[in-house]
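The authors assume throughout that readers already know how a fold can be written as discrete tokens. The format is easy to grasp once an entry is in front of the reader. For illustration, here is how one protein appears when written out as sequence plus structure tokens:
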Amino acid sequence: MARIAFVAKPASFVVALIFLAGFAGLWLGWKAFWFLTDDAFIAFRYVSNHRLGHGLVWNPAPFRPVEGYTSFLWVMLLSAVWKATGYDPPTAANCLALGCAALTLALTGVAVLKMPLAPALGRFRACALAAVLVGVLSNRTFLAWTSSGLETALFNALLLAWMCAWVWLPRHTPIRLAAVSALAALVYLTRPDGLLFALASIALFAGDAWLRKGKWRAADWLAIAPLLAIPTHLLWRKSFYGDWLPNTHYAKSDPRWLWVTSGARYALSFIIEYALWFWLGLALYAIWTAARQRRALLDRLRREPALRETVLGGAAISLSLAAQVAYYTFVIGGDHFEFRVYSHLVPLIFISALWMLNAVGARPLRAAAFGALFLSSSLVIPWTHWLATKDLTRREETSYLKASVADALARRAPGLPGFALAYARWYDSLQFWLIDHAVCMRHQEHKSFYLFLIGVLPPREVGERVRDDRYPVVTQTSVGVMAWVLPYVNVIDEHGLNDYVVARNARARGDLMAHLRSPPPGYLECFRPNVAIRDGQASILPRAVPLTAAEIRRCEADFAP
């Protein structure tokens, strides 16, 4: 009970000031890193077609429907906001993402306030709260994904809320089961890998039933009903798109050893960039400390049912997180975007560091010293890179953007020892290999590419006038912004993310992540593309022979594998 007494120790006005400062810092970081990715406009195209009455399709019928967005909840949220407020997706998306990031920050702070701490650390809970929020808000990956137009911030907020619901809500109650079920379903609907956390929820519920010796009430079974949204969505996907998995799965999947080595480099880059050696060392020390105290811990587990549930719940949540990270690391090979698939780990890293410091019995001065070293070390590489690239805006400067952190450090701090520069060059070599394979492409590249696209394409209000009833077609590799500004033009995605045939074409174009597929010979020509884009204008060229609905269906059927 002595530990619990420290949960609400800090004065409320101090806590309020810390949170206000945190939200102000979040807003400043959001403004500094604000960007939209071309890929975000893929989802916006689906929203547009849904609003136009075509359903969630890339190209309206007679083209075959495909699911190239993989973020059902985000798409439906953007659609609802557009209908209710008149704000279209490019306007609303980053505001919604900022709100989601604020929720993530708030949950992170509350997790620190509710964490049981030993009296020695508990007296400094306000300092711990400030340190954790500073750690999160100084993390470049966290700040980058507070915008982008993608669903990342929504996924991160819902995932953290799912974990907090299990930990904070009263044990063995329908309200906890209902909250965890609903949040797990929402996480899944936001991104397909959320299915892992739905499965973890089932494991949590099974553990809850076991601890209660199978005594589940009717209200408990009713409380987990939100999980039925998952099979419902799967059945809808199968019936509407004809596949159990999103079309992007087929476009991106590639079972080559290359992507295992890519994922290893991706993970190691993340560890080096944010000095996670400190966290890993603390984790090993916490495990060693627990092993030394295993007899006392086992005795407590036998005597305290609440502790057994905490351990089982923590194991289920940790294993689901580890499985998701392992999937993206060793199966997918990382991610095309800068550490996007690790961004949800950032708050957890700092929360767990505080928890482990408490678990190993660290005194306040040692905990503060560890935190200061960890935080200061985590700032050097990401912010050196940011300073070296933040002013690069031209496409020729940022295409496959590779900036040497070692060279930037040598210029800024010529007195650095050789081992520090060698460490930075190791990091550079990992990053350059990844970028050469279109993995971990940096924030500034995506930001400048969006600016480039809106400079060469017509605005949407102009593109809306490019329309006729003879199925105008354009083909492109970077299709997001183009498909948004030309809502009445059929866009053939040459990378296959939004095309059934290209996604399943066995021919790979090379070793670039998310850019593997190429159209079968003759496939693009079958649609007789007739939209020209030049000097910010788009026009429909006449065809010698009109394209018909029957021809479109035949092209897709003839070239389908």
